[in-house]
Specification:
about 325 residues, six-stranded mixed β-sheet, Rossmann fold, 13 helices, DNA polymerase, domain 1
């Protein structure tokens, strides 16, 4: 039997943007706030968040938002980083702000920074929490975040109901958790507009890392690459690695989640604080949350509401 005193406490680390965007695309556009602005993403995100609270009753929770859509330090390293993404429309930006207000009003630690992405904030919060004896549960399907998994951590694709630890990463991605950034440096990442090494695909990258261990060793021992029997077209791969060595190193820097982003104003243990009654009441009125959502907020936060007759369900 495990000694309770040695069992790590859990901090939940939520990648908010994944669930805001999911709601934006999946929820009907019939929801509007008191001023007539769309609120479908807020309603969907609120449902996700309340279900998460109901299922886990977390005492320690972080919700990370992206404020660094075009101001991230990675944009200074590589101006084309994420340049393939269209800017969010104004009504979605308003909904992101409302989702953030909701998290704050419900007593959760919210992290956002103009220099660092949500992934960096999650990584930095997890790194800080580990020093206080915590394990992390990262609530996101984003493969990049798998690089953060340590022995006791888990990643949770909430929408699909799938959870895995570091030991489950090779089956999902073909490489170990600690090799994810090196893997992306080789293959690139079309979603983030990271080019990688031309001609190096997923199978070749996985084979290189299985044989050599790290990107540094692949580049240091590049003359051995043509003789690796598990790599099809190994001689061509070696030439591409020689030609694009600096690009590979840059791509690894872009793909690596930093662990030193500032978690400004956060409780050292990321404790869930007391809900803020009046801001919650104001949000429920402004966003026109219906009786069911209000009852769930009441149950999650201990805040009482009088359901608005004109509100949505």
């Amino acid at each position: 039997m495990t000694d309770a005193s040695t069992t790590p406490r859990t901090v939940y680390l939520v990648d908010a943007s994944v669930y805001v965007f999911r709601a934006w695309h999946s929820m009907p556009n019939e929801f509007t706030d008191a001023e007539g602005w769309p609120t479908n993403a807020v309603h969907g995100f609120a449902r996700f968040l309340l279900e998460l609270l109901e299922r886990t009753s977390p005492e320690h929770i972080v919700v990370a938002f992206d404020d660094a859509l075009d101001t991230c330090f990675r944009n200074r390293l590589y101006p084309a980083y994420k340049a393939n993404r269209d800017p969010a429309p104004d009504d979605l930006k308003r909904q992101f702000a409302a989702c953030r207000e909701l998290c704050v009003a419900m007593g959760m630690t919210v992290l956002a920074h103009t220099d660092y992405e949500a992934d960096d904030l999650i990584g930095s919060a997890l790194h800080a929490a580990r020093a206080h004896g915590f394990r992390g549960v990262i609530v996101s399907a984003d493969k990049d975040l798998s690089q953060l998994l340590g022995d006791h951590d888990e990643q949770w694709d909430y929408a699909r109901g799938q959870r895995w630890g570091a030991a489950g990463v090779p089956a999902r991605h073909g490489v170990r958790a600690d090799q994810i950034a090196d893997y992306l440096a080789l293959t690139g990442d079309a979603i983030d507009n990271i080019p990688g090494v031309p001609g190096i695909g997923a199978k070749t990258a996985a084979a290189l890392l299985a044989h050599f261990g790290t990107l540094d060793d692949v580049l240091r021992r590049v003359e051995e690459v043509p003789y690796v029997s598990s790599i099809r077209g190994a001689a061509r791969a070696a030439q591409q690695l020689r030609t694009h060595r600096e690009q590979a190193l840059l791509c690894r820097e872009l793909a690596t989640i930093v662990l030193h982003a500032p978690c400004e104003g956060a409780d050292v243990h990321f404790r869930r604080g007391e809900p803020r009654r009046q801001p919650l009441l104001d949000l429920c009125e402004r966003l026109r949350f219906g009786p069911l959502t209000r009852r769930r907020i009441h149950a999650a936060c201990g805040i009482d509401f009088m359901p608005a007759a004109s509100a949505a369900v």
